[in-house]
Amino acid sequence: MTGPALKGVQERWPSGELLHQWIRNSAAVLATGNEYATNLYNEYNKQAMPAFPSFTDEDIDNILAYIAQESTKEQGGAQAGTGAAAGGAAQDSGDNSLLFGIITLVLAIVALILMQINSNLNKLAADKEGVATPEPVPFYRNKAYIALGIVVLFIVGGYFTINGAIGLGRQKGYMPEQPIHYSHKVHVGMNQINCLYCHAGAEKSKHAMIPSENICMNCHKAISEYTGPDLFTAEGKKINGTAEIQKLYDYVGWDPQQQQYTKPGRPIEWTRIHTLPDHVYFNHSQHVVAGKQQCQTCHGPIQDMDEVHQFAELSMGWCINCHRTTKVQFAENKYYSIFEKFHQEVKDGKIDSVTVEMVGGTECQKCHY
Amino acid sequence: MEQKKYWKGLEELNDTKGHQEIVKNEFQEDLPFAEGESLLNATTPRRDFLKYLGFTTAAATIAASCEIPVKKAIPYVNKPEEITPGVPNYYASTYAIDGEYVPVVVKTREGRPIKIEGNTLSSVTGGSTTARVQGAVLSLYDTARLRYPTINGTETTWAELDKQVSAALNGLGGRPVVVLSSTILSPSTKKLIGEFLSKYPGSRHVTYDAVSYSGMLLANEAAYGKRALPSYHFENAKVVVSLAADFLGTWLSPAEFSKQYGATRKINAEKPEMSKHFHFESMMSLTGANADERYTHKPSETGAVALALYNALSGGTVSGIADKRLAEGIQKAAKALQANQGKALVVAGSNDVNVQLIVNAINNLVGANGTTIDWATTSNYRQGIDSDMAQLVNDLNAGSIGALLINGVNPVYDYFDGKKFVDGLKKAALTITFNDRKDETSELCKYAAPDHHFLESWNDAEGKTGYYSFTQPTIAPLFKTRAFQDSLLVWGGNSTSNWVDYLKGEWMTRLGGQEAWDKALQDGVIEPATAPALAGAAFAGDVAAATAKISSAKKGGKHELVLYEKVAIGNGKMANNPWLQEMPDPITRATWDNYACVSNKLAQQYGMELGDDYEINAGKKVLKIKANGKEIALPLLIVPGMHPDVIAIAVGYGRNKNAGKAAGEVGKNAYPLVSYNGQTFDYFAPDVTVEATGEKYDIGMTQTHNSYEGRPIIKETTLEEFIRHPKAVNEDREELAKYGKDFRADATLYPDYPYPGIKWGMSIDLNTCFGCGACTIACQAENNVSVVGKEEVIKAHEMHWIRIDRYFSGDVDNPEVVFQPMLCQHCDNAPCENVCPVAATMHSSEGINQMAYNRCIGTRYCANNCPYKVRRFNWRDWNGADSFENNLYDVSDMNDNLTRMVLNPDVVVRSRGVMEKCSFCVQRLQDAKLAAKKEGRPVKDGEAKTACQQACAADAIVFGNVNDKESRIARIRNEEQKERLYYVLEEIHTLPSVNYLAKIRNKDAAPKAAAGHHEEAHHG
């Protein structure tokens, strides 16, 4: 957490004027030694909020009004939710299913015992009347039971087989060890380097591109040691950041002492994390430029990852779900001016927005060709 | 209008039993069970079946459940500024092989060329291409290319080779050096060769064209004093008379001529004008098939026909022609020519000086010089003089040649007396080949100094005087090859300069600076700012002498032979190109072979009964043909429209085994049948003997693979009829009205889908589709369409997404031909979509019939239900896309790691067991849409082009967004071509997205079918 939730911010602050100052330049408020501000700053690990000197009072009022409006909306939604019984039941369905499961199991056992008793009684009755009955077969040789068992096994086995098969080739959470411990957290999170500085292809090409080594060297000619907080691998092993930078120098053939390239460069063989099957066409620039998506939508909180792992499932269902709910820049992007029907419907108030799906974004040959 | 009867082959015309059977069957082969054995009494017992089942399940599980492989992502160390992975780069270049001049633009992805398009900045070709130009990109990745310099066939280094060659050149003892090449268009290269040879007194540069045009060159010299070829302007010709010149297929510069000729064949009801084309030939050529009036004669009568035409024009009577129809035709052509003075053009394919001289005289009479023939801007397309080559071979045999440097020619294979050339070659002290691939000639040379492929080279080309096009590397040399020019520079002792600097130096001086040079490379072409005015030349030929020589020529025998080039394979240089080998010949529809084309009558004489087993079965009877003392045994193939006594054989086949997996030992070499008349090569033999052998040989013919079962799919009319009743050609469309006012919405129970954004559509003009096949190869390159090989073609397993159906109509011996490109029609009410059990094929909101390969389970219901028969099933694993490695079926090295570099990375390869078909080049459409979206504007008309459209030389294909009322396609459909527009099988309400424009023939006669109809009425 980098700070408190914004809901009720106006009520919490001692004065509206101070809040305005805080939003415009938090460092200035801290410098005055205000108690509330200092406590807040210390509480959240001394993370400074960026200054926005260009904000007018009106801008800040608008922001605060927006926060206030959104806060009440959320409450309203929650109230409506608790009001509906179905909503409540759905919310704790997890607990109930366990209960139902136990009840089903108990009832099944009771039914089994009753069936056994029934057959015994039948046999006794038949013996009494002198009707010859076949010897009872033990339940494990009873054909009905065996058949039932097979069906159950088939269903359970089938469930797991199919789930397993669907999961083949999917590697959500995949976090391989890389040849250099490159930390996105250090570069993006702490040093605020724009994603597109290195992954320039994301705006131009289907590939976001892993940066070539000359891009690294743009900065690392000057930055040869790591002085930030300690770095650890996922297993908890401590990483020497400066040594990792040395590895880069070794790959590109840079001699930091002489400040020049002394050897021919070698490419770094990164282990690829995000992989789509060959029969999928995916274009980064489509999503970043035309679709105005943030990198984090698919790659997760990359700015907080020391080692990158696959955040999203990257399965077809995952893609499709997003295409069904995401809205295109319908009014802003003049490409969509040709969709007269939808423009009319928006104008008539029949629809309020146009999703990717509505302009054909879930059709097969948008990704498979 | 009465529907004419169209037929793809004689079987269909005669509706034989075999044909009926084939029409009934969806797939043209029996299921792979032995004859007479049914599944019920098969010997495989239940237990075995279960064992197999268990094994395959287990095997599939193992194959599928292996661990996910760890993949590497390897960035550049230092990324070149101009390369963005995933974004193509385009470089202007030139296809200048054997004198063909086609400025091109090469698409490269991550540094490898994957597609060639025409360069639209060139006013010569206007961006048109041919099948061979499209296929040239595959030749770059040919596995048969020479990969390093060799001495006596063993690998060596360039330094060692240079040392030895320099020593050998110095030790020639005054004997001359000869550079033997095909036509070179590059002025800088020619200058360099001249400089190199000047060091060796008596040396010379001999130009040798495998298929020679020296008859024309010499006739032009005799008539106009210029040993050159003029520029032809078919676009200015109202009447074109071709004496066996296949100018749309193989003659001189088909890309250029198709564009020009196509412009005169575009027609609409508002401006119902088109050129008239007479064609006289011995065989059935592509151009002949497109002619309005076509007449046949024996090859020995070529001179007589030219002479008769000349006489008809000058004196007014046709004489010396026995055949009545032919004589009438000549008379008619003469009349038309006379009526169109200054708007007429006569061309001839003959390599005989006298015939060409008469043709020059005719052109002079009809005012072609300065109007349709331009002598101000001459063309350099062919420069070889046959007698030079014959002289060289004699000199070689006499042992008087010191060094022979061979560049880009293969005379051991294609010289008519190859044996004599080989003997001579052995007597030369020093033999060096620069050929870039293994061929018959380079095998016999001591030194091989392989040249780059043109896509790896620097060069310039002067196609026509003042019209230049540049070649720049699109990829670093794949192998240890070196530019031919660099080798000459090194051996000439000019080690300070290299070829790039030499070329750049030449042009920097001419252009005056780096900026102009950069611009020249970017544009690819340099042309005069204003095209020079057309100019004629004073005719000074000796017609009387030529007449005398033609009249005294040897008369033909019972059967005559004519040799021709196939549209795809040409002279055989690019024979090891599987795409071109598998491209069906426009006329015969045969792949992977050459054969003896004969008329129906001649076939029957030699035992080929037209029966159930002719076109249905691949096996054709083999004929032994003797001509000029040589013998060749080839299967006969009946081609309607052949002269009854003529046999036609294609050159370019029969390469030896080392020429590559695709070319090696395919067909027979017909070059030995060429003869030398003392002045030029004759590509015909006036007297041949034919002998039936009783053997059979399989030919992979796609002719009868897809039958329309007599349904009306072609519409055509005559110009006269079209002017009188423009709407008559589409009379039958009026019947659709009975289904309701709006056929689209009213004739179906389904609701009509509105297509809210883009709706893609295509229009194909049957009048300007000449059947050349460039689109087929362009599609193959763009969409990674597989090559299947001859055996599979025989089983009707060919994979082309766009095929060009060829239909005959009318007289069996002199039929009319129509070509119809057939691709997925992207029906809005598609029969295939409804029957797919897994919804692997369905419709997009842009009107595309989509095919999801990974969803397809291969039931093939869709193919069965497609009335257009355009779906292609992957019967085998052509691409190695299966999990099981040994499933791969590859007959032509298409899956070598080298060859696979040609694959388009934006399109997948399909695995075995899935259906595929034309996608309207969806990857290009998506790309165009994305570019528009990124810029925040709608897609502009013409931005999204399909590969077939872009390749078409005559612009027969128009593609675009039908919803955009301003687009070309919308205007064609709604305004320009309403009268000619029709959809194939429209009445079954498939609602195709592809429309056709009816063919219009510029002939006087009333439509034959209509005439027949009237006759019947009289009889009745």
From TrEMBL, chain B:
This is Molybdopterin-containing oxidoreductase family iron-sulfur binding subunit. Residues 760-790, 815-846, 847-876 form the 4Fe-4S ferredoxin-type domain. InterPro entries: 4Fe4S_Fe-S-bd (IPR017896), TAT_var_transloc_signal_dom (IPR030948). CDD domains: MopB_CT_PHLH, PsrB. Gene3D superfamilies: 2.40.40.20, 3.30.70.20, 3.40.50.740, Dimethylsulfoxide Reductase, domain 2 (3.40.228.10), Formate dehydrogenase/DMSO reductase (3.30.2070.10). Transmembrane segments: none annotated. It comes from Chitinophaga japonensis (Flexibacter japonensis).
